[in-house]
Amino acid sequence: MSFAEIIGQEDAKNLLKNAVTSGNHSHAYIFSGEKGSGKMMLAEAFATMLQCENPTDDACLQCHSCKQSLSRNNPDIIYVKREDGKANISVDVVREQIVNDVDIKPYSNKYKIYIVDEAERMNQQAQNAILKTIEEPPEYAIIILLTANHNAFLQTILSRCVLIQMKSVDTESIKSILKNRYDAVDYQANMVASFAQGNVGKAIALATDSSFNDVKSRVVALCKKAGKMEEAQIADEVKAIKEENDSDKKNDNPDKFEGFMDQMLDLITLWFKDVLLYKATLNDNLMLFKEDSFDIHEQANNCSYAGLNEIIEAISQTRARLNANVNFELTIMLLINAIKENTK
Ligand SMILES: [Zn+2]
Fold it and tell me: All domains of the chain, ordered by start, with CATH?
């Protein structure tokens, strides 16, 4: 990974590149940002450039060290791993993989770099153990802690690390990545990029996740037909959504960014935002559900502004009810009825 391959994060990239070229780097960094925000990519670009034999304003990607870094086989870039099946990064892991290892000089590079993913999983003991290394590191050691929540660190750790916060990436840049690197077609790139709200990792996961398209198809079908649904059809739909939600909960996939219901509600919101936007502008350019523009136009003509606002309001009530564990079927039925009443 090189800095050039990372989109967005310009401030962080400049700071880290300057640290390498000036030789004026810190011995400890925290890269903080939500899942998918690109912390690991940034850490790997930084580590690769630090170890590069001929760095200019980025790693050369040609030298022996770069080749090792790119294939994650650089002996002096250490990915700290937690024990199998353990949720926490224990004090033993920190001692074994960092504290007791750091005094051994780099094998073949200038630096010895430790990357700790999900570092907020270090319990207090583990944090205290790593603190000593952060306080008095050997000249060649650099520790990079990646976290979704830097507030989980002891103040003593925070005060000794350079904190870099990941930024959200603009929709246009995400769209071009999806089109250029993942062969997404235009409307798909638009949809996914808007849905991901600045999170590149989430956008890529969605663009390559076939179940997202299934949820999208379900939402599109529901939004189109809700106005004409009979009571029995609504009951069937509620049942189908419940089954889908149950099976999603059962196959809890840690790589997935959000559950089925969150995706559904987000997509329903985007659909009605399209309707609202078209109603206000009579313009298709900003529309996400472009393939369904015929239905969006029709709903925009038939629905009032007040009705559309009621639907948006009903969606946020649905989220609140689900969070408060109100009966699932009842909650979904109320939502579908709200869509039905306002799109008749
Ligand atoms: Zn190189």
Answer: 3-165 (3.40.50.300), 209-343 (1.20.272.10)
